[in-house]
């Protein structure tokens, strides 16, 4: 068995003395693992970094075997993300969430393209933080846990949407929320295409997506905790906003 594809490196695990098992999110083969021989060499170590875009060839005797990779670098994103702790934390969070959430060897071409677009934004424009928040919504949608932010679950109106129900994932207007408002999650206007994305709205948005990632997606995967990399990103963002 052999195939060739492009993808982004998500995770590297040591395997024996000088090899590693890598996980790559590829366009045509989904999240796919394989062994790289000589991964600890001076030549390979700089290449095998999370977020690197790779041209990969996978080979195995049988389709269900782990198989081995030969890799060629296409694009390093190290320079962009090393500009600060926040950008590095953001890239690590995307890689960790993909490795955590995606079923192995299952194609997700729409999410792949969205993810590559986000990787290319991180560290290159301030818009990447809002793009990250939208990407978490896209991740939920892709895995069958999409939120319905089109209209109020109570009144049916599309106006004055202000909250999201933590149980149904549907939007709720300020009027529809009534006395239950304190039990709902704030819905940032920036996710509705209204205005800029101030820090408080980004925090509210990450709190909202975090709720559904934890209570919907992670519970469906055996109730495993979300990757610590996501919380490190949220913490880094909060520290930046405080200063």
Can you describe what's shown?
The protein has 2 domains: about 1-75, Beta Barrel (OB fold (Dihydrolipoamide Acetyltransferase, E2P)); about 80-150 and about 185-240, de novo design (two linked rop proteins) (Up-down Bundle), CATH 1.20.1440. About 35% of the residues lie in helices and about 20% in strands. The protein has helices at about 80, 85-100, 110-120, 130-140, 175, 200-220, 230-240; strands spanning about 1-15, 20-25, 30-35, 55-60, 70-75, 160-165, 170-175, 185. The protein has a 5-stranded antiparallel sheet with strand order 3-2-1-4-5. Strand 1 (about 1-15) and strand 2 (about 20-25) form a beta hairpin. Helix 2 packs antiparallel against helix 7 (about 230-240), helix 3 (about 110-120) packs antiparallel against helix 4 (about 130-140) and helix 4 (about 130-140) runs parallel beside helix 6. It starts with a strand and ends with a helix.
């Amino acid at each position: 068995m052999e195939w060739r594809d492009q993808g982004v490196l998500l995770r590297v695990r040591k395997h024996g003395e000088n090899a590693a098992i890598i996980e790559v999110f590829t366009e045509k083969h989904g999240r796919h693992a394989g062994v790289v021989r000589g991964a600890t060499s001076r030549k390979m170590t700089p290449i095998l970094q999370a977020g690197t875009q790779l041209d990969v060839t996978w080979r195995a005797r049988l389709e269900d075997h782990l198989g081995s990779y030969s890799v060629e670098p296409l694009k390093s994103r190290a320079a962009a993300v090393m500009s600060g702790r926040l950008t590095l934390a953001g890239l690590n969070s995307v890689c960790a969430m993909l490795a955590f959430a995606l079923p192995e060897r299952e194609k997700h071409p729409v999410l792949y393209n969205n993810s590559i677009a986000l990787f290319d934004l991180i560290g290159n424009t301030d818009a990447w933080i809002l793009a990250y928040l939208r990407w978490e919504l896209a991740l939920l949608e892709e895995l069958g846990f999409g939120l319905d932010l089109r209209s109020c679950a109570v009144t049916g109106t599309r106006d004055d949407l202000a909250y999201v129900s933590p149980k149904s994932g549907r939007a709720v207007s300020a009027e529809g929320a009534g006395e239950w408002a304190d039990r709902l999650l704030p819905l940032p206007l920036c996710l509705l295409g209204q205005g800029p994305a101030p820090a408080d709205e980004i925090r509210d948005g990450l709190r909202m997506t975090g709720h559904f990632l934890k209570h919907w997606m992670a519970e469906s995967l055996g109730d495993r905790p979300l990757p610590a990399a996501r919380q490190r990103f949220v913490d880094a963002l909060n520290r930046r906003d405080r200063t």
